[in-house]
Specification:
The chain is α+β, with helices and mostly antiparallel strands. The chain has 5 helices and 10 strands, in the order αααααββββββββββ. Helix content is 26%, strand content 30%. It has a 6-stranded antiparallel sheet with strand order 1-2-3-10-5-8, covered by helices on one side. It has a 4-stranded antiparallel sheet with strand order 4-9-6-7.
């Protein structure tokens, strides 16, 4: 059983990587706050692993640092391997929004495509104000449940087995409007 005061090891490594990325650019917390739209105090607490950033905050940080979420999370996992067993696939959870993200593809900084499994709790609603990389291509394949995806002011309602392909330039929203969890595969392709 995990004690709430003990940071998750992934959150600890993520905190260190976020601090290192900021330091590599020579930015202060105030500089990063201005670029990301996230408060200086939230950034400071995230870099000390006192809190885990939400999915929306992590998306903003990925945008500022020019990375996909999978790439950033892959950077905290160590040397990439060509095979990633199910038990070893990194899982990241945004408890506040009810979003669970599993990085299915073995991480590799030189590859342009990746697979992610997403799970949204019933009623979960996540809005991203921008893509982590402009022009990012996404294929969203619903494995179970129903998912509403909004991009370019157009809402698509997806049921089990449906697949939506998008190129992301602006805000997006993922919403589980059903009484049951939505589970989906997200194929992400860098432009």
């Amino acid at each position: 059983m995990r004690h709430e005061d003990v940071p998750d090891p992934v959150d600890t490594r993520l905190a260190a990587r976020l601090a290192a990325l900021r330091a590599e650019r020579g930015w202060s917390l105030a500089d990063l706050a201005e670029r990301s739209g996230i408060s200086r105090s939230t950034l400071s607490r995230a870099e000390r692993a006192e809190i885990s950033p939400t999915a929306a905050q992590l998306n903003r940080l990925c945008h500022v640092h020019g990375r996909t979420m999978s790439r950033l999370l892959g950077e905290v996992e160590g040397e990439p391997a060509p095979l990633l067993r199910a038990a070893d696939q990194p899982v990241w959870e945004d408890r506040a929004s009810g979003f669970v993200r599993r990085s299915v593809s073995p991480p590799h900084p030189g590859l342009r495509g990746e697979l992610v499994e997403g799970r949204l709790a019933a009623g979960a609603d996540i809005a991203y104000d921008r893509p982590p990389v402009p022009g990012l291509e996404q294929h969203i394949w619903v494995l179970s449940g129903a998912l509403e995806v909004t991009a370019d002011d157009l809402t698509h309602r997806l049921g089990t087995g449906d697949c939506l392909r998008l190129r992301i330039w602006g805000p997006t929203r993922f919403r589980c409007a059903e009484d049951a969890e939505a589970r989906y595969v997200l194929a992400v392709v860098l432009p």
